[in-house]
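Handout, page 2. Input:
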Amino acid sequence: MDRRLIRGARRHLARALLALSAVSALAALAPPAAAQGGSDAAADYPNKPIRYVVPFAAGGLTDIMARMVGHQLSEEWKKPIVVDNRPGGNANIGAEQVAKAPPDGYTWLAVTLTHASNVTLFPKLPFSMQKDLVPVARIASSPMMVVVPANSPIKSMKDLAAAAQKSKLNAGSSGNGTPPHLTLALFESQTRTSFTHVPYKGGAPSMTDLIGGQIDVVFSNFPESLAYVKGGKLRALAVTTRERHPLLPDVPTVAEAGYPDLIVENWTGLMMPAGTPRPIVDKVAGSVARMLAAESVRGRIVTAGFSPAAGGTPFADYFSGEVTRWARLIEEKQIRVE
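Output:
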């Protein structure tokens, strides 16, 4: 073969190998589509079961809503969503498990107002609610309901404030730093009253002692006292939302009762580990929003005593606002958790 042809072929082969080497180097430097947050991250999501951690016992607002979400989305996606109740540590045990889970979209956390207040109540946790978790969607809420024994002489919120200014009343709650305790503390701050706080291990025993007359009042979670109010064992003074609740239309709001700044909602939402690809977060958020827009689902939520989350403030901003709001009160009232 002609030597000039051989030399030319060698030069062409060298250039081709050099170009191929450069392309391979660039490919090695480029992150995968999921890490870049590209739409490929959610294309086949989910393709295996999802673990939905509920850091409370079964049966409450958070558990009921998590199971409803899990059922609806597992039907939509044809993949199991398994609710895993991990109560304890003021809801911090389950939260830590999710905060330290792989950020792949297959571990979810059910959160509530409790987690917003925990940011201040537990400043030395081995994880951060705001740095190690990403808010995905707010799901539902329920009011607090101020209840007294049916035979109590206290018949209104004004009566309650007046009675507390005359003598020390006993106010129960489901525990230190819980939403009922925080609502009580907010009422004390606004009325310049002081109650003897009696923390229980959950809402049920506080209801039992209130009905029995061992304590005077509870700023209760709505579902925990609803049946007792309907059954005539407790008297409801007010609900802590802007509108009356459809299940108890005769019970006034705190604004109607003269305390417009006592608006408190015990809400529940969904978070995932920080670093979860944005397309997966958006896919889950969109599916939850569609679920909450369905009339059949909304009806079941209301019947259970809750209100579906409305659009508006993004959940990340809402959660941050709740952290700030309750931090001020916790510091003002010097609330501590043992």
